[in-house]
TrEMBL record, chains A, B:
Organism: Chrysochloris asiatica
Function in brief: Catalyzes the reversible transamination between alanine and 2-oxoglutarate to form pyruvate and glutamate. Participates in cellular nitrogen metabolism and also in liver gluconeogenesis starting with precursors transported from skeletal muscles.
Cofactors, names only: pyridoxal 5'-phosphate
Protein name according to UniProt: Alanine aminotransferase 1
Pathway stated in the Swiss-Prot or TrEMBL entry: Amino-acid degradation; L-alanine degradation via transaminase pathway; pyruvate from L-alanine: step 1/1
Gene of this entry: GPT
Enzyme class (EC, first level): transferase
Subunit description: Homodimer.
Primary subcellular site in the record, as a coarse category: cytoplasm
Entries under CDD domains matching the protein: AAT_like (cd00609)
């Protein structure tokens, strides 16, 4: 032993040491992780902003970060009541200030009463403040037309991402051909592929049907599942509704079919429902998996395992920075539920300011409360503007030759398909980048518009897309959409 | 295929379905995770609180949660200036309120300027707000007597735990006998053992020397390392200074020896320095690993890989609920550093209110600022009281027969050793629980005092300890310590 390490020690003293941690010796699962929403295109966008600040001349005056669903970064104002309650919780001396309405003070006091030492600075229990979990349960009951929700099945989290990773972590087992397979939609939100890679599980792709407005088809689920059984043990099915990046809102019939499929095939369901308040299209309506599952009765209602995720980051509030969220588990094995709590306890607790914010999200002012009118007005204004922007996006893109955009029924993104000329595809291949990455990078360099290439979300071979948020303010959005369309036309001419 | 799944489907329809996710089918690494600080003893403490609220008669009137370093839950007041800055950031309308001092307003404006959309509700880049990382770097430079710190080497995190897990995650590789071994102190803070179990790495214990006030001895490190080489590939060495649960503060000589050892044995160093402001004993002083490493010169300064962790949860502010923290990496391979940023980006960003709070922690008011005097007075009052409580704890425990407590040089805990009578040990074994868990559970049931058994942190075979925070308010602490000592005496008599 002494010899073995002595040699290394000697080599080290001579300055020959290689690092302990290198690309080759690091966790190779982590190395395989990809996360396009903050990938190279965003790194370059940050550099360009820096260069603009330093006075470098560019063909644009600002970088528009349409790559991420970050409403307040795009100028959306926080909901006044939420911030009032939170400021009162942060600095309880303000409880005596006439600046704040009575209902905000009442709410802040109620939250502080539920905190250790009456302070946001204390840890909470790992599943989150019990009172807030009760409020979440009541919110779910109202949302789902009275179907009961048990606060003991609700775990608060650091944004929805944290809860999604926790549930996937529980599900990962096996080795080689018995490794856990996780069915994820393509296109998907890349948290799923990233987490599956990090956990060394097997990603099983099922394709959403672009020709039918990105509908989820159970025949395709079945195909994906059966093909995957040779290489892994599929145990989990992830569904994103409303869809990210695709913006589709699933019909009740579709959800029923997915639940039947999951039940028959013994798949644990993960329902990413963080855009449940973001439904714009006429005729579209959000149906929670929990509600549909319950209304289908036994055996689904009593046996199908489900985890449903929600967040404070999206909806009409867009409070991404506070990292609030929750998961409701349904029909989870009680012993596994204890394991889940144990796992969460290692990280102590979700940020308490995010928990407090979530409380206001799930229990807004009552109609008789002084802040109710303003709260509702602010909420409706945001949602109405998002609906208008969803429509405008679809319309402008569909007027552009070579771009085709499905209706943005919900969520916060368009995911248009674009034609790319064969010479551009070839040029990209020569450069060793995906053709849509090549397009998006050129778009960024020449217009300052930052969108994410479809390859970061997955797409059918030979098709090209990009994801763009609908969040820029209305007065900027139309010129932005037109500029992007014009750039696409120019790019197409250049490579024709 | 259809048959295989059809059978299961049929079984399911007949109500015979087993759950997809059970103790047997779940992630077995997660199942092996243990986290005593929030384990069964705390579950029982919560139940007892509930029972007290329901009016059940107990031999005590309140549960004292001395199990976790949660200062504000124990009644410690937040630092006024920190909460003022944060409230202004949360609700910028308050910037026009005369309630707030000018320097708090200036600080809040500066933070908001650095946020997307000038709002805490926007995401930040995944490593945290650049301006705050610059402030952290300047803090480290001041702390370390001018040794440079590069903001690009600083990553903000969701408490220190998040950053520790991230760094360990990068380090995990190999299979069977080539699996990554992680050296951790015994006794340790159980985040380390829990994370090592979850990541399926190999825990390599090195024992701190209780007879020498929990000193870290390099001979023992060497023994642990060499014995471990048969079963794994040791690649990381975790050090907690000031110690948790042990309260020791390492000498500069000790740190130098550890660095030499890590370098010679090619170990990546993780320095958990979250208690860097919590040093009480005369003659003790905090030395950061970064500073010592740098002052040792090449090859250590230029080659030894190090990650140093800090947090907003401890120190004099005790803002656990905001989940603020950071890691500074030193000599990390630049390619690995990119991988680390990528991994962090999947979770988007640390809570922005925690980032803002961290900014105030690392750059308190300047002496010429209006809030400076109050800030310093509040800070010194907290630290002075903690020092008095550390001393009192040691003193009272050492007066009790059968209890022996090392000096609490730093951090927030005492970790006294206690004698347990053989009949109590035997009784515990009959019940299938660790003897110190048996003691702590009886203590809780009969006195309402909640402390964590030493077995949750690790201890030498046949020795028994508990961890108790020094955080209860002074007027409660002395009776608490006496009550605990008396219970130990009674327990000892009962089983003699």
């Amino acid at each position: 032993m002494a010899v073995r390490t002595g040699d290394q020690g000697q080599a080290a003293m001579n300055g020959l040491t290689e690092k302990v941690l290198t690309l080759d010796t690091m966790n190779q699962c982590v190395r395989r992780v990809e996360y396009a929403v903050r990938g190279p295109i965003v790194v370059r966008a940050l550099e360009l902003e820096q260069e603009l600040r330093q006075g470098m001349k560019k063909p644009f005056t600002e970088v528009i970060r349409a790559n991420i669903g970050d409403a307040q970064a795009m100028g959306q104002k926080p909901i006044t009541f939420m911030r009032q309650v939170l400021a009162l919780c942060v600095d309880p001396e303000l409880l005596s200030s006439p600046h704040f309405p009575e209902d905000a003070k009442r709410r802040a006091k109620r939250i502080l009463q539920a905190c250790g030492g009456h302070s946001l600075g204390a840890y909470t229990i790992s599943s989150g403040i019990p009172m807030i979990r009760e409020d979440v349960a009541r919110y779910i009951e109202r949302r789902d037309g009275g179907i009961p929700s048990d606060p003991n099945n609700i775990f608060l989290s650091t944004g929805a991402s944290d809860a999604i990773v926790t549930v996937l972590k529980l599900l990962v087992a096996g080795e080689g051909r018995t490794r856990t397979g996780v069915l994820i939609p393509i296109p998907q939100y890349p948290l799923y592929s990233a987490t599956v890679a990090e956990l060394d599980a097997v990603q099983v792709n099922y394709y959403l049907d672009e020709e039918r407005a990105w509908a989820l088809d159970v025949g395709e689920l079945r195909r994906a599942l059966h093909q995957a059984r040779d290489r892994c043990r599929p145990r989990a099915l992830c569904v994103i509704n409303p869809g990210n990046p695709t913006g589709q809102v699933q019909t009740r019939e579709c959800i029923e079919a997915v639940i039947r499929f999951a039940f028959e095939e013994r798949l644990f369901l993960l329902a990413d429902e963080v855009y449940q308040d973001n439904v714009y299209a006429e005729g579209s309506q959000f149906h929670s998996f929990k509600k549909v599952l319950t209304e289908m009765g036994p055996p689904y209602a009593t046996q199908q395992e489900l985890a449903s995720f929600h967040s404070t980051s999206k909806g009409y509030m867009g409070e991404c920075g506070f990292r609030g969220g929750y998961v409701e588990v349904v029909n989870l094995d009680p012993e596994v539920q204890k394991q889940m709590l144990k796992l969460m306890s290692v990280r102590l607790c979700p940020p308490v300011s995010g928990q407090a914010l979530l409380d206001v999200v799930v229990s807004p002012p009552e109609p008789s409360d002084p802040s109710s009118a303003q709260f509702q007005a602010e909420k409706q204004a945001v949602l109405a503007e998002l609906a208008a922007k969803a429509k405008l996006t679809e319309q402008v893109f569909n007027e552009a030759p070579g771009i085709r955009c499905n209706p943005v029924q919900g969520a916060m993104y368009s995911f248009p398909r674009m034609e790319l000329p064969p010479r551009a595809v070839q040029r990209a291949q020569e450069l060793g980048v995906a053709p849509d990455m090549f397009f998006c990078m050129r778009l960024l360099e020449e217009t300052g518009i930052c969108v994410v290439p479809g390859s970061g979300f997955g797409q059918r071979e030979g098709t090209y897309h990009f994801r763009m948020t609908i969040l820029p303010p209305m007065e900027k959005l139309r010129p932005l959409l037109e500029k992007l369309s014009q750039f696409h036309a120019k790019f197409t001419r250049e490579y024709s």
